[in-house]
Structure formats: C-alpha cells, structure tokens
Amino acid sequence: MRQEGGDDLSVEQVKDDWRQMGLTPAEFAMLEYAEKLTLTPSSMREADVQKLRDVGWSDRDILDIVHVCAYFNFRVRVVDGLGLEVADWQIERARAGAERAAKAAEARGVAMPRDRWQVR
To answer: Checking CA distances to 1, which of 13, 14, 24, 45 falls within 20 to 30 Å?
Structure first.
C-alpha cells in the first residue's frame, strides 16, 4: 500500500481495522470480498461477485481484485509453508512506517491503531 502512495497512517489503520476507516462503498465491498476470499474461499458465491458489481466494479476490476488477493495469499503460504523468516530490512521498513504513522496520528490528533503484529 505504501508503494502505491498510501500514507503510513492509512497503512496502520488498514492493518488494525479497515472497517473503521471511512472507506467508500466500493472500497469497503472490495476489502470485504478480499477478506472472505482469503479466510473462507470455499464459501464464495456469485452473490459475492454481484455485490462488487452493485457498487461499480467492472468484471475486469473484479478479476484484478481476485488476482491480487490470490497472489498475496500464494506468497504468504509459500513463505509460511517453507518456514522462511522475514528479512531484517522488511522488519525495519515496517517499523519506520509505523513510526511515521505515529507522528502523523499525533499531528492529526487521532489515535494510533493498535499494533496487532507487534512490529513496533
């Protein structure tokens, strides 16, 4: 998300609870769909796809959403399945982003999301 221009505080908010971010209906539906596809893929139905169409996603958009979700799930499962460790630079990058997010939260007068994965 940071690579796509997301600010550090938004990244931390997504990690904590994306449902509380004030997303557009289309963004909310996309993340709800991706979460369901990640956690319970066998429960996906045509109605889930229709919900995305109903908030403006095209069939091509939906295919892209599925591909991105599947790709990241694949990567996580390969890393976890092989027992690979996260590289030090990745941990440092996450910590630096969290520190910038804390400063942004303070400047905006909002609460910093909790550290669910204990990166900070």
So the answer is: 45
